[in-house]
Specification:
The complex is a heterodimer of chains A (about 425) and B (about 325). In chain A, the strands form three sheets. In chain A, strands 7-6-8-9-10-13-14 form a seven-stranded mixed β-sheet, with helices on both faces. A five-stranded parallel β-sheet of chain A has the order 2-1-3-4-5, with helices on both faces. Chain A has about 425 residues and is α/β, with parallel strands linked by helices. Chain A folds into two domains: about 180 residues, 3-Layer(aba) Sandwich (Rossmann fold), CATH 3.40.50; about 160 residues, 3-Layer(aba) Sandwich (Rossmann fold). In chain A, strand 8, helix 11 and strand 9 form a beta-alpha-beta unit. In chain A, helix 3 runs parallel beside helix 14, helix 4 runs parallel beside helix 5 and helix 14 crosses helix 15. Chain A is about 40% helix and about 15% strand. With about 325 residues, chain B is mainly alpha-helical. Chain B has one domain. Helix content of chain B is about 70%, strand content about 0%. Chain B contains 15 helices and two strands. A two-stranded antiparallel sheet of chain B has the order 1-2. Chain B is globular. The chains are: A alpha/beta (about 425), B mainly alpha (about 325). The interface between A and B is large, with 38 and 38 residues. Chain B: It is a multi-pass membrane protein.
C-alpha cells in the first residue's frame, strides 16, 4: 500500500471539508447528462390564439429551466421542441409528423385550445403516444383515445356541471331570481357552456326570456344588450371571447344596465390588458375562471410560479399577470414530469397507465383523470371582481379584487349585487 | 396586273407540340414516379409536406382557369375549397362513403356552385366580380356555421378509417397518393383547356371581351364552362382536408390563407400558362411549410406578402414570364 504524504493528506482533508460544506440538495441535484428528453408540440405564437399561446410557452420554459436546474428528468436534461402553428389547425398535422418523424421527440403535448388539439389527435394516436392537452373541451368524446389527458378544469360532464356554480350563486340570492337571459358566441366552447346554462336553468325553474347566439363577426353589441334589457331578466349568463367581451361590457356600460347578476364564461378579463382596459366596468361581474390570486386557492408552487413568470413576461411583452393560462400550462408539464419519474423510463403505454392510475400534485392543485382523460372532479371557478378602481395593475395582483364565490371550498368572498357595469 | 410575283415564304418547320394524350400520359407517369419516390422516402412527414404542397397545386391550378385564362379574379377560392371539405363531411356522415366517392361528390358540388356563381355574377366584371365572389365566401360560411349537421360553428370530427387501402402502408401515404393524382389530373386538365378552342376563347375574352363577342366568341357560355370547371377543381382540392386533420371547423376551412394563396401562387408563377400555378404553388407552399418548421414565428406569415410584392414589381408576368422574355 502506498503511504500518504503530508501533502496528499492535506488535499484529502480539503476535499472532505469542501464536500461537507456543499449542501446535500445540491449534491443530489447533479447536472443532467446524456441525450436530452425532447418534448414536442405546436404552439400558437401568431394569429388569434397567440395571446394565450405565448404565456403558455413561457410557463413551459420556466418548467424546463427548473427541471434542468434540479438534475433533469431521469438524469437527462429536458428540451422543448416547438413550432408556431399560426393558430391554424391545418398546420398542426404537419408539425406533429415533423416532431415525431424528423425531430424524434420522446414525448408530445398539445398546444393551446380545441382547434389546435383536435388536428394533432390522429397523428398522436397513430404512434400510440401519451398526449397531455391544454384547454381542450370535449376533444376526446369522439376519438375515445385511452392515452389522452386533458388539462382543463371543466371535466367531462360539461352540460351538468359547467354552469352549476353560476346557478348556485344566483339561486342563493334573496329574493331568488325568476328569469334568465342567455347570450353566447356561436363557437364550440360557448355552445357547450350555453347548453349547460340552459339545462340547469330548466332544473332550477328559471324562465329563459332571451336565448340567442351571436356570430363571430359581430362588432356592434349594443343591439344585443338592448334586446336583453328589453326582456327584463333577473340574471344574465354570457359566453364570449375577448373582443366580444370588451364590446358587450362597454355596451352594457353605455346603456347603464342593472341586472341582479351578470357574467359567465366571459373570456377577456382573464387577459391582463383587458383587465386594465375595462377597470371599474368589471365591478360585480361574475366570471368563470381557472385561477384567482386569493389565499383560499394557493397550492404548493403557485405563487412561486407567478413570481417567476411576471418579470419574464414583462421582458417578453406577453400577458403581464399570468393568472389564466400559465398555471395550467405549467401543470401540463408537471403531469408529464410526475408520470415519467414514477414510471422511470419513456414508455408510452406505461406513462398512460400511470396517468390513469395515479393522481398528480400540481400548481393548480391535486388532480386525477377519468377514462376519457378529463378531470374526475371538475373545478370551474366563479369569481367576482370587487372594488376595482381606475386602471392600475397592482390592484389585480392582490387578494380581494377578484374574490372566489364558487366552489365553496375555495370561497373567499360574498356576492355583491347588482351588476351595473361600473355605473 | 403586275408580273411581279411574291416569293413564296419558306415553309417554317412546325413547332413540336405535345398532344393532349401524350401530356395526360406524361402526367400519369410523373404522378406514378412521385408516388414511388415518396413511398421510397418512407417518411410520414414527407407525406404531409407533399400533401400540403400538392393541395395548393390543385387549388392554384383551378383558380388559374378562371383567373388566369379568362382574367376573372376570384376572391372566393376559400369558399369552393371549404365546399369540398364540407361535402366530404356531409356525404361521409350521411352515406358513410370513403374518400374517393366523396371527392367525386365534391367535384359535383363545386361545379354546381361554380355554375350558379357564374350565372349570378358573370355579368359583373373586374372589381365588381371579385367583390361578388368574396360575398359568396361570406354567405357560404354563414350557412355552414348555422348548419348543425356538419358541426356548425363547433366544427366536425372525421375519424380516419382503420383499414389502410392496399398497397399503402399508412393512411397519410394514401392521402398523399390521392393528392398526387389529383394534382397531376388538374394540371393535365388545365393544359388541355389552355391548348384547346376553349382556352383560345378564354384568352380572347381576357384580352377584350367586347371584341371577342363581336368576333363570334360565345363569351357567356365559355365563362360558365370556366367557372364550373374551376369551381369543381377547387372543391376537389378541399375534399381530403377533413381526413388530413380529422377535424374541420368553419374558421380554418374558410381561412384567408386559402384565398390569398390561390391568387398569389399563379401570380408568382405566371397566369398565362398551366406551368405558372404549378411553379408558384410548389415554390410558395414549400417555402411556407419550411418556414413553419424552421423559423417558427410570425415572420413566416410575411413570406407570401413579401414574395408577392417582389414578384409583382420585378416579374409582373411571373416566373414563366421571366423565361419567356429571355427567350
Amino acid at each position: 500500500m502506498q503511504s500518504l504524504s503530508r501533502r496528499d493528506l492535506g488535499r484529502a482533508a480539503l476535499a472532505a471539508t469542501a464536500a461537507a460544506t456543499v449542501p446535500a440538495t445540491a449534491r443530489a441535484q447533479a447536472a443532467p447528462s446524456g441525450p436530452p428528453i425532447r418534448i414536442g408540440y405546436s404552439m400558437s405564437l401568431s394569429g388569434g390564439l397567440a395571446g394565450n399561446g405565448r404565456p403558455a410557452l413561457l410557463a413551459h420554459r420556466i418548467w424546463a429551466e427548473e427541471v434542468n436546474s434540479k438534475g433533469g428528468l431521469l438524469g437527462r436534461p429536458v428540451e422543448l421542441v416547438n413550432y408556431d402553428d399560426q393558430s391554424t389547425g391545418a398546420q398542426v398535422p404537419g408539425i406533429y409528423t415533423k416532431l415525431i418523424d424528423v425531430d424524434k421527440v420522446d414525448l408530445v403535448i398539445s398546444g393551446y385550445a380545441t382547434a389546435i388539439i383536435a388536428p394533432a389527435m390522429p397523428i398522436v394516436m397513430q404512434r400510440n403516444m401519451a398526449f397531455v392537452s391544454l384547454f381542450g373541451t370535449g376533444v376526446n368524446n369522439d376519438f375515445k383515445y385511452d392515452r389522452y389527458f386533458s388539462i382543463n378544469p371543466t371535466g367531462s360532464q360539461v352540460k351538468e356541471t359547467f354552469a352549476k356554480g353560476f346557478m348556485d350563486i344566483a339561486m342563493a340570492m334573496d329574493p331568488k331570481p325568476r328569469s334568465i337571459a342567455l347570450v353566447n358566441l356561436d363557437s364550440d366552447f360557448h355552445q357547450r357552456t350555453a347548453e349547460s346554462a340552459r339545462f340547469l336553468a330548466r332544473q332550477h325553474g328559471l324562465r329563459v326570456v332571451y336565448d340567442r347566439a351571436y356570430p363571430p363577426s359581430t362588432v356592434d353589441f349594443a343591439p344585443i344588450i338592448r334586446a336583453v334589457q328589453a326582456a327584463r331578466p333577473d340574471i344574465v349568463f354570457v359566453g364570449s371571447y375577448p373582443p366580444d367581451t370588451a364590446g358587450l361590457l362597454r355596451a352594457a356600460s353605455e346603456l347603464r344596465v342593472n341586472f341582479q347578476m351578470m357574467g359567465g364564461p366571459m373570456i377577456g378579463p382573464h387577459i391582463t390588458a383587458q383587465k386594465l382596459q375595462l377597470g371599474p366596468i368589471l365591478n360585480n361581474l361574475v366570471v368563470w375562471d381557472v385561477y384567482a390570486p386569493e389565499p383560499t386557492l394557493q397550492f404548493p408552487g403557485t405563487q412561486a410560479l407567478i413570481e417567476r413568470y411576471q418579470p419574464l413576461a414583462a421582458k417578453e411583452g406577453t400577458d403581464a399577470l399570468g393568472h389564466y393560462v400559465p398555471p395550467l400550462a405549467y401543470a401540463q408539464m408537471q403531469v408529464l414530469e410526475q408520470a415519467v419519474r414514477r414510471v422511470g423510463r419513456i414508455d408510452q403505454a406505461a406513462l398512460a397507465a400511470d396517468m390513469h392510475a395515479n393522481g398528480f400534485d400540481t400548481v393548480i392543485g391535486p388532480l386525477r383523470f377519468d377514462a376519457l382523460g378529463e378531470w374526475t372532479e371538475e373545478r370551474n371557478l366563479y369569481t367576482q371582481y370587487q372594488g376595482v378602481q381606475g386602471n392600475g395593475i397592482d390592484q389585480f395582483r392582490k387578494a380581494g379584487t377578484q374574490v372566489i364565490l364558487y366552489p365553496q371550498r375555495y370561497k373567499s368572498g360574498d356576492l355583491r349585487k347588482p351588476y351595473t357595469a361600473g355605473a | 396586273m403586275s408580273d411581279a410575283t411574291i416569293p413564296a415564304t419558306p415553309a417554317l418547320p412546325r413547332p413540336w407540340r405535345i398532344g393532349h394524350g401524350a401530356f395526360w400520359l406524361g402526367s400519369a407517369a410523373v404522378a406514378l414516379l412521385l408516388i414511388a419516390a415518396l413511398r421510397a422516402f418512407g417518411s410520414e412527414y414527407a407525406y404531409f409536406a407533399a400533401t400540403f404542397v400538392l393541395q395548393y397545386v390543385v387549388l392554384a391550378t383551378a383558380w388559374n382557369i378562371l383567373g388566369g385564362y379568362a382574367g376573372y379574379v376570384n376572391f372566393g377560392a376559400a369558399a369552393f375549397f371549404a365546399a369540398g371539405a364540407y361535402t366530404t363531411v356531409a356525404i361521409g356522415k350521411a352515406l358513410g362513403l370513403s374518400l374517393l366517392p366523396c371527392i367525386a361528390f365534391a367535384a359535383v358540388v363545386g361545379g354546381a356552385l361554380g355554375l350558379g356563381t357564374g350565372i349570378l355574377t358573370l355579368r359583373l366584371r373586374g372589381a365588381y366580380f371579385a367583390i361578388a365572389t368574396l360575398c359568396l365566401s361570406v354567405v357560404l360560411q354563414t350557412i355552414v356555421v348555422n348548419w348543425s349537421y356538419v358541426g356548425g360553428s363547433r366544427g366536425a370530427y372525421v375519424i380516419r378509417p382503420r383499414d389502410v387501402p392496399w398497397p399503402f402502408d399508412s393512411y397519410s401515404g394514401f392521402l398523399c397518393a390521392v393528392m398526387v393524382v389529383l394534382a397531376a389530373a388538374s394540371i393535365a386538365v388545365a393544359r388541355s383547356i389552355e391548348k384547346s378552342r376553349l382556352g383560345l376563347g378564354l384568352a380572347a375574352l381576357r384580352d377584350d371581351e367586347a371584341a371577342a363577342e363581336a368576333a363570334g366568341v360565345p363569351t357567356l357560355r365559355l365563362k360558365l364552362v370556366a367557372t364550373t370547371i374551376s369551381g369543381a377543381m377547387m372543391a376537389v382540392a378541399g375534399a381530403p382536408l377533413p381526413l388530413l386533420g380529422s377535424y374541420v371547423e368553419p374558421n380554418s376551412a374558410f381561412g384567408l390563407a386559402y384565398a390569398v394563396n390561390a391568387i398569389a401562387m399563379p401570380l408568382i408563377g405566371g397566369t398565362g400558362s398551366w406551368a405558372g400555378p404549378l411553379i408558384g404553388a410548389v415554390l410558395l407552399a414549400s417555402l411556407q411549410q419550411a418556414a413553419t418548421v424552421t423559423i417558427s414565428s410570425a415572420a413566416n406569415l410575411m413570406i407570401v406578402g413579401v414574395v408577392l410584392v417582389v414578384f409583382v414589381c420585378a416579374a409582373p408576368h411571373g416566373i414563366i414570364g421571366l423565361f419567356r422574355r429571355r427567350a
